[in-house]
């Protein structure tokens, strides 16, 4: 993806109407603190456009980040960002779903959170795929497994991103990827991308995957 511009375009609260954006949407789910904001910022080449509040209960919104929304003039051949013309600068949304797993949040908040995500997964006409983020150092939790199953049951094959890969030695990465695969009982052939917001490991792979989904 060639990123020409990005902005936080739409914020939906529990009672907001969900938008029909008319553009491809790629959503990101994961436990709070897994590195979701950092991943979205890294994808967008921004330091702090996406941010999470450290206090639980304040992040119950779905945030729609518009990528390449502003009209760009057609780039002539030889565009410096894209010398071989192989990349797209399609207009699309990265959708930040609220993080789960705050132990201290009340059942009422958990319920409204669940309903909001469910409503989005059910009703979006433009959702192309859901990425599920798992910390590469840990085995998937019960909540992670529930989220994985939930995404599947809504008709999407979750694409897993194993975050904070810089915290491991290279030799440990594949071992942890196998653990996550087993923990989520993933089908053979389904994808896990090791990722690091610090070293930017995996950024190109994730974008290539998104490009394919957006151009379908
Ligand atoms: P979110 O709650 O899922 O949005 O998580 P954040 O993106 O806010 O990250 C939570 C914490 O993990 C922050 O302290 C980040 O600096 C840290 N973090 C996120 N991604 C990475 C990463 O790739 N590598 C390392 N070492 N730390 C990370």
Q: Which class of secondary structure composition applies to the elements?
A: alpha/beta
Number of beta strands = 7
- Widest β-sheet, arrangement of strands: 1-3-4-2-5-6-7
Poorly predicted parts: none
- Terminal CA distance: 14 Å
DSSP strand content: 15-25%
Shape: globular
Ligands, deduplicated: guanosine-5'-diphosphate
Element order: H for helix, E for strand: EEHEEHEHEHEH
Q: Helicity, in percent?
A: 25-40%
Number of helices: 5
GO biological process, one term: division septum assembly
Organism: Bilifractor porci
Keywords: Cell cycle, Cell division, GTP-binding, Magnesium, Metal-binding, Nucleotide-binding, Septation
GO molecular function, one term: metal ion binding
SSE diagram, text form:
Blueprint: E1 6-12, E2 25-30, H1 36-44, E3 62-67, E4 92-96, H2 107-123, E5 127-135, H3 142-153, E6 159-163, H4 170-183, E7 192-194, H5 203-215
Parallel strand pairs: 2-4, 2-5, 5-6, 6-7
Antiparallel strand pairs: 1-3, 3-4
Residues 30, 32-38, 52, 99, 163-164, 166-167, 196-198 line the site of guanosine-5'-diphosphate.
Could you provide a short overview of the structure?
The protein is an alpha/beta fold. It has helices at residues 36-44, 107-123, 142-153, 170-183, 203-215, and strands spanning 6-12, 25-30, 62-67, 92-96, 127-135, 159-163, 192-194.
Give a verbal description of the structure.
Keywords: Cell cycle, Cell division, GTP-binding, Magnesium, Metal-binding, Nucleotide-binding, Septation. GO terms for molecular function: GTP binding; metal ion binding. Necessary for normal cell division and for the maintenance of normal septation. This is Probable GTP-binding protein EngB. With 216 residues, the chain is an alpha/beta fold. It has a domain at 6-69 and 85-131 and 140-151 and 202-215: P-loop containing nucleotide triphosphate hydrolases (Rossmann fold, 3-Layer(aba) Sandwich). It is 30% helix and 19% strand. It contains 5 helices and 7 strands; from the N terminus they run E-E-H-E-E-H-E-H-E-H-E-H. It has a 7-stranded mixed sheet, sandwiched between helices. The longest helix is centred in the middle third of the chain and has 17 residues, at 107-123. It starts with 5 loop residues before the first strand and ends with a helix. 34% of the residues are buried. The mean pLDDT is 89. The site of guanosine-5'-diphosphate has 17 residues, from helix 1.
